[in-house]
Each structure stands twice: as C-alpha cells, then as structure tokens.
Amino acid sequence: MPPVDPTVRRSTVTGVYRFLLTPRWLGYLALTLVGSAVMVGLGFWQLDRFHERNAINNRIESGASGTSVELSERVGAPTGGAGTSGPAPAKDVEYTRVSAAGRFDRSREILIRDRTVNDTVGFEVLTPLVLDDGTAVLVDRGWVAPAVGGAAVTPAVPPPPAGEVTAVGRLRAPESRAGRPALVAGHLQTRRISPASIAPVLPYALYGAYISESTVAAGMVAVAPQDENALMNGGYTIEWWLFALGLIAGYGFVARKEARDTQDKADGRTSSDDDIDVWLAKYETSQP
Predict the structure, then answer these.
(1) 218: left (phi over 0), alpha (psi -120 to 50) or beta
(2) How much is the pLDDT for 147?
(3) Does the pLDDT of residue 257 top 80, yes or no?
(4) I need a surface site. Which of 135, 136, 204, 285 has the fewest CB within 10 A?
C-alpha cells in the first residue's frame, strides 16, 4: 500500500483528536488532572516535612554547644502546687540550649529503664533540680550501664554535684505514654520521661519539660537525641512530583496512540504500515 501524503494527514489532525472531547476521554483527563494535583500536593507536604525535620536537626546540632538561655525564656514556669507540672515547650524551641540554676535533690532521683546506648540496655538518670523559687526541673544527667545482677539491681550512679549548680543542656519535650514512677529495688523507676507523670511523686511543682545535659560526670554517657531523616522526605518530594509528571505524560502518550490508530484506520492502514515504510526506505538507501 503506498504511503499517505503527509499534507493530507496533517489536514485531518484536528478531526482525529476530536475523540478527546468524548465523555470517556474527558473522564480520563479529569482523573489525570485530579491525580496529578494530589501527587503535587503530597510532594509539597513532604517538602514541608523536609524543612521541618531539617530545622529540628539544626536545633539539635546548635543545642550541643554555644550560648544558653534561661529555662524560663523557652518554657512557661509551673503555676500550680506540689505534684503538678507546667506547660510543655513549643515544638520550635525543643532541643535549644537552656540553663537553670538550683540544687540537685538526689533523694528523689529517678531511673529511666530500658534505655539503649551503644547496643547496651541501661538506665538514664533523672535528677530533680530545685530552683530558688521552690519549683523544680528534671535534669537527665546521662546514661549508666546496668548492674551485674541485671535490671532488678540498682546500678551504680555517680552522685550529682553538691550545692548550688547550673545545669546546661538541650531542652526536651515530654515523652508520650508515660506512667507514674514506682519503687524498684528501693529506687524510683519508670520507662518514659514525662514531668506530668512524675510530678505526683515529688513534693514540688515541675516544669513541663526537662533538660538533657551535654556534659556528664565520669562513668556516665551523655544522651544525644537522634537526628531526623530529612533526606528521606526530600526524596519523597521528588518521587511524588515525578509521579505527577509521569501521569500527565502517560495520558499524552495514550491519547497520541489513540489518534494515530484512528488515522491509520481512516487511511486504510494497519498499525504496522508506517514501521514497514520506514524499514523499506532505510533498506533502499542502504543498497549500492
């Protein structure tokens, strides 16, 4: 079958693509646009999460050193009586470097069990720091290894400094699903750090956040927070936007194929005729 004049094919392009105005193809277009819009929106959501996590990592890094600010400048002081706690810190101030001056109350020290450092399960040591106004803030003085006898035996904990001290470290928000401390082997213990859950067993009001010290005593290990995986969200952002582009490109490809098949039928050609013509032309030009 002889090739169709290209000028004839171009003159019928508008008519060939008329099928795009049929209800079925308008439905395909609507689904493509809605799907692409959803994917673009999900990409922007992941981009927001990337910036949020990146900001957290910046605060974690800067909270390890540098100038600290007074605790009361970052979180509200407790206003209730003994056994109560103040408000939790805002998300945008968590991990910032703060300081508080007072005296450690070792008699009411609390061990936070089931804490892992360097693949070893041990305890974090939480000691109340009583401030001049009679309120207190919990200070995570670091991690200690378990005793030889296991979790049922109280580990050896280095004593806190005596007298007036200034605790400096990262401001930490309360942990979720916390329970009230209980006596285990003669020492208060719990699994999660939450001033609201710990306050009822203490004779003073607590700040609604705690301080995780960056510099700890010999025999203890400073507990550093884990960095957020911001790069993962950055990758998801690119993926969602590529999916959106792929969906639009797929719609265009299928529409182009439909138009080509429709034109070929109108010209009395099979879908492979063009490929045969191209092959024959290449063959003829290759002959001497």
Answers:
(1) beta
(2) 84
(3) yes
(4) 285
